[in-house]
Amino acid sequence: MKKFSWLFGFMLVAIMLVIGCSQASTPNESKLPLPNEKSTLSPTEEATIAAQVFKTKEYTIGKVPEWPLLEDVVLERYAEMEPFYAERFADKPVNYSYVLLALRAAGIQQASLQPENMKFTVYQELENYVDLDYTMDLMLDKQNGKIERVPLEGRLSLVNKDGAWLIQADDFDDAAFLKLIPQ
Q1: 3-state secondary structure of 92
Q2: Which candidate among 12, 91, 109, 154 keeps its CA 20 to 30 Å from the CA of 130?
Q3: Which residues touch 37 (CB under 8 Å, ≥6 apart)?
């Protein structure tokens, strides 16, 4: 039962957020379309929104994880991130390591993480496929009270599968993460 208490708590908070956010919106309020929602956006705009949602989820670590990482924390992170990828983790195991980068950085640095100043530009666009170059600042709010800004850049490849823009590949900033996660 203890294994599922975190899941129950997470679901309760998610439901409260959805209810609260839906009640807070007014009819005159402009609303950003959700990724993969039917809209008048171009495919590139839809892919860019999906990329922004993915990168925000990937690099937002609100609670500093214990180090070394506990198995249940790792499994929870896999479950949160797998829906963003075009291929299941079992089919493309390298995605396992991508998912843990931010979590490992938060644990080793003893900091919560938050991406800021995200910018995406189109590198290449084909039918049902978009490569986006991105830049952002990864803000580390360390437990000792110091805040550190780490500039990141990379290229994100998205593919449209059944109307949903999913991550095909992420060429992330190796050099920045080597500083955050020393080997």
Answers
A1: coil
A2: 91
A3: none
